[in-house]
Design brief:
This protein has helices at 20-25, 27-44, 50-56, 58-61, 64-84, 99-106, 112-129, 145-156, 178-190, 211-222, 245-254, 262-271, 285-293, 305-314; strands spanning 3-8, 92-95, 135-141, 161-168, 171-177, 195-198, 232-234, 260-261, 274-279, 298-300. It folds into 2 domains: 3-129 and 209-314, Malonyl-Coenzyme A Acyl Carrier Protein, domain 2, CATH 3.40.366; 135-201, Alpha-Beta Plaits. By secondary structure, it is α/β, with parallel strands linked by helices. The longest helix is centred in the N-terminal third of the chain and has 21 residues, at 64-84. α2 runs antiparallel to α5 and α7 (112-129) runs antiparallel to α10 (211-222). It has a 5-stranded parallel beta sheet with strand order 7-2-1-9-10, with helices on both faces. A 5-stranded mixed beta sheet has the order 6-3-5-4-8. It has 14 helices and 10 strands. β4 (161-168) and β5 form a beta hairpin.
């Protein structure tokens, strides 16, 4: 019997009309979004129709405090559908950035409604931590991550810039204050990077600028129950599986201001014997990264019926 893993996407994977086909065929999709909308309404103090936003309002969907609960709901909806359709249980779970919350819900560690409210607040805190236009992120392609880290240290000067996402060999995202990121982009180009591209984001995630957001989130996390895991989750900050609820909670908090160790996370899954991975959520971004990290792992997406059927067939015990 081969082992399978599940990965859950983060911000950037949202798109207008996501999961529309699945919703016409399976009631669990809308049921999950309705559950998320109720939790969101209780948290925000106003009625929220998260499904309607994902289908009709691109501008609102791209606001980080809406993007985060929308992607969480999408991933949890597909997870629930997967099990309704008789899909195999995975050996390991991992989520990229925001996706770690989806993984924790699906592992039984976090209650879904609690997670919806946490990521809504997380999005607000992240946006409020850095004034608009003062932070930035950039993708650096074709340069070793250790070289990038050294160049970021030199470019920081009186600002902040550091590696934020170690996404794949030759693909690292940096984040920080805009001027420092611009200096780091220039330095990386001079050092031989194939490309150094500013990203269209409103928040510089996974860097020291998120420390104020983390302090605010800490208070919310203290009021949320973290359960003993039913499934193992590989966490972002170190690419390892934490064993206790307190350790998982602490790692989740640190995730806001520490880099996402995605390469290490996928190596951990492969070292555990995972041979097939399902990307549980909209898009195929993580599958593309995994192919660069561990080409021998078979990757499947799940955002529509055709891809979900292929994933179910490709991960069945009869394969």
């Amino acid at each position: 019997m081969h082992k399978i893993g599940f990965v859950f996407p983060g911000q950037g994977s949202q798109k207008l009309g996501m999961l529309a086909q699945l919703a016409t065929e399976h009631a669990v999709i809308l049921d999950t979004f309705n559950e998320a909308s109720a939790a969101l309404g209780a948290c925000s103090g106003k009625s929220q129709d998260l499904w309607a936003i994902t289908q009709t309002d691109q501008d609102k969907l791209d606001q980080t405090h809406i993007t985060q609960p929308a992607l969480l709901a999408a991933s949890v909806a597909i997870w629930r559908l997967w099990h309704q359709l008789g899909g195999s249980s995975p050996e390991l779970l991992a989520g990229h950035s925001l996706g770690e919350y989806s993984a924790l819900v699906c592992a039984g560690i976090l209650d879904f409604s609690d997670a919806v409210q946490l990521v809504y607040k997380r999005g607000q805190y992240m946006q409020e931590a850095v004034p608009a236009g003062t932070g930035a992120m950039a993708a650096i392609l074709g340069l070793d991550e250790h070289i990038i880290s050294d160049l970021c240290q030199q470019a920081a000067q009186d600002g902040i810039v550091s590696a934020a996402n170690i996404n794949a060999p030759g693909q690292t995202v940096i984040a920080g204050s805009k001027e420092a990121v611009d200096r780091a982009i220039s330095a990386c180009k001079e050092a031989g990077a194939k490309r150094a591209l500013p990203l269209n984001v409103s928040v510089p995630s996974h860097c020291a600028l998120m420390l104020p957001a983390a302090e605010r989130l800490r208070k919310d996390l203290q009021n949320v129950t973290f359960n003993t895991p039913l499934l193992s989750v590989v966490q972002n900050i170190n690419g390892k599986v934490a064993q206790t609820p307190d350790e998982i909670k602490n790692n989740l908090l640190k995730q806001l201001y520490m880099p996402v160790q995605w390469v290490s996370s996928i190596h951990t899954m492969r070292d555990a014997g995972v041979e097939r991975i399902v990307e549980c959520g909209p898009g195929k971004v993580l599958g593309g990264l995994i192919k660069r990290i561990q080409p021998d792992i078979a990757c499947f997406s799940s955002e529509d019926s055709q891809n979900l059927d292929l994933a179910l067939a490709g991960t069945s015990d009869s394969v």
